[in-house]
Amino acid sequence: xxxxxxxxxxxxxxxxxxxxxxxxxxxxxxxxxxxxxxxxxxxxxxxxxxxxxxxxxxxxxxxxxxxxxxxxxxxxxxxxxxxxxxxxxxxxxxxxxxxxxxxxxxxxxxxxxxxxxxxxxxxxxxxxxxxxxxxxxxxxxxxxxxxxxxxxxxxxxxxxxxxxxxxxxxxxxxxxxxxxxxxxxxxxxxxxxxxxxxxxxxxxxxxxxxxxxxxxxxxxxxxxxxxxxxxxxxxxxxxxxxxxxxxxxxxxxxxxxxxxxxxxxxxxxxxxxxxxxxxx
Length: 280
Fold this sequence. Notes:
By secondary structure, the protein is of the alpha+beta class. The protein has 2 domains: 2-84, Phosphorylase Kinase, domain 1; 98-278, Aminoglycoside 3'-phosphotransferase, Chain: A, domain 2, CATH 3.90.1200. The chain has helices at residues 2-11, 52-63, 98-113, 117-122, 133-141, 147-152, 154-165, 203-206, 212-219, 228-255, 259-265, 267-278; strands spanning 21-25, 29-34, 41-46, 73-75, 80-84, 126-128, 171-173, 195-197. The model has no long low-confidence stretch (mean pLDDT 96).
């Protein structure tokens, strides 16, 4: 990877001035901070089977470069991306009102991306459309310890998915949108979990223990589709169904890894299924 980084820096008129420092490592990705002339850059390597993140990130950055952190360089085949340093995240440098503003801008990106849903699926974005979820859910729970209890919820899940599918359009859904994945200038990164889904599945992560004003900021752009009261009803379905979708996303990520890593991290699948079961 270091050879590729050096090649890209040279192409960009930059030079590495120190050794890369590993800042994050997991079985599905690796992130390095690279000292370079002109300021640090960040390199990300994505595991095989999850490299759709690169194409999806590039497509979304083309739609809204002010909101989506665009790669300086990318290699879809090898799973490499290079980014300029964007400063701190909102988690480490909170700014009053910026989280609400970011969610409202993200909602508008979702609205604008709805017309590109098929293209995003073609680029490899995970399929979390309400129409697809019942079948995916049935296959997922077959080997779970609570399979029978989870299967009892299948009819309710199907009904909720039908309601969700009849309301807002399917579109891009980050699926891990929190203040640690937003830079201090409001740009969003880390689209590895992203899928084409009901847009409100985002709220499973984004609205955890958030005040009503944050929820309302996210919902405001959607009032062009439905009144606020109806959006709140849709949100209730999405917060429940979205937990099953999160379990499915974890299962798909882990399906691309070796068996030892799958066993180690499968607890994340189980956790989301238990939350889904508890609220069912």
